[in-house]
Amino acid sequence: MKSVVVFGLGQFGKSLALSLSKAGADVMAVDRDEEIVASVAPHVTYAAVADLGNADAIAGLGLSNMDIAVVAVASDLSASILSVVISKEMGIPYVIAKASGERMGVILKRTGADRIIYPEAEMGERTARVLMSNDFLEYFDIDDNLCIVEMKPKKEWIGKSLKQLNLRERYSINVAAVKSHNEMRSSIDPNKPLKENSDLLIITERDNLKNLNRNQKPSR
């Protein structure tokens, strides 16, 4: 499973860090606000308080083994630039940076970010994906190809176990966790029948989402 560091725990960064952690990723969550870090700490692999406007503070986090860095401090250009630069210097292969506008995006791209995201604009796409399916509850992009979807089980899935459904083979999706009674659990019993309220947290490639909108009869 991938290891991800999230710099900045505003609404976007915090939501992303928690969603990635629920999906089974190793998540390091970083922010300068001690209260915010404390609220996230029980739900991620590691949480740290650091001044993202200080290069030494960022370098001291020990980022060399991270697979992905997400820089989510769009309100502070200086902190964003430092986070991107230090992440690349520490050898993180893929750095995603949040930008508040096109000009900021250009700057962050030039400093080394592999991908620029504009959450306000991309929210439209995310909302569209949720609206296009009666089953989708939440949708998050992890990178250009991989996404996380929280969805209700299809009607034909209810009463059948994950082992019976064989979702990986039929839909090319991976169930990372099952949510029941507002509690998300990553320890899944593949022989337990799905209930109507058993929401699923799924990791898949974006191109595979179309498979979920097709009517396929699962094996008995």
Task: Describe the secondary-structure layout.
Layout: E1 3-7, H1 11-22, E2 26-31, H2 34-40, E3 46-49, H3 55-59, E4 68-71, H4 77-89, E5 94-98, H5 102-110, E6 115-117, H6 119-131, E7 136-141, E8 146-151, H7 162-165, H8 167-171, E9 174-180, E10 183-185, E11 199-205
Parallel strand pairs: 1-2, 1-4, 2-3, 4-5, 5-6
Antiparallel strand pairs: 7-8, 8-11, 9-10, 9-11
Give an overview in words.
It is a single chain. The protein has 220 residues and is α/β, with parallel strands linked by helices. The chain folds into two domains: 3-117, 3-Layer(aba) Sandwich (Rossmann fold); 125-213, 2-Layer Sandwich (Alpha-Beta Plaits). Helices cover 31% and strands 25% of the residues. The two termini are 30 Å apart. Mean pLDDT is 85; it is low at 215-220.
Oligomer: single chain
Structural class: alpha/beta
> Remind me, CATH topology of the largest domain?
Rossmann fold
DSSP strand tally: 11
Largest sheet: 6 strands, parallel
Task: Sum this structure up briefly.
Helix content is 31%, strand content 25%. The chain is α/β, with parallel strands linked by helices and 220 residues long.
Task: Jot down its keywords.
Rossmann fold; 6-stranded parallel beta sheet; alpha/beta; 2 domains; Alpha-Beta Plaits
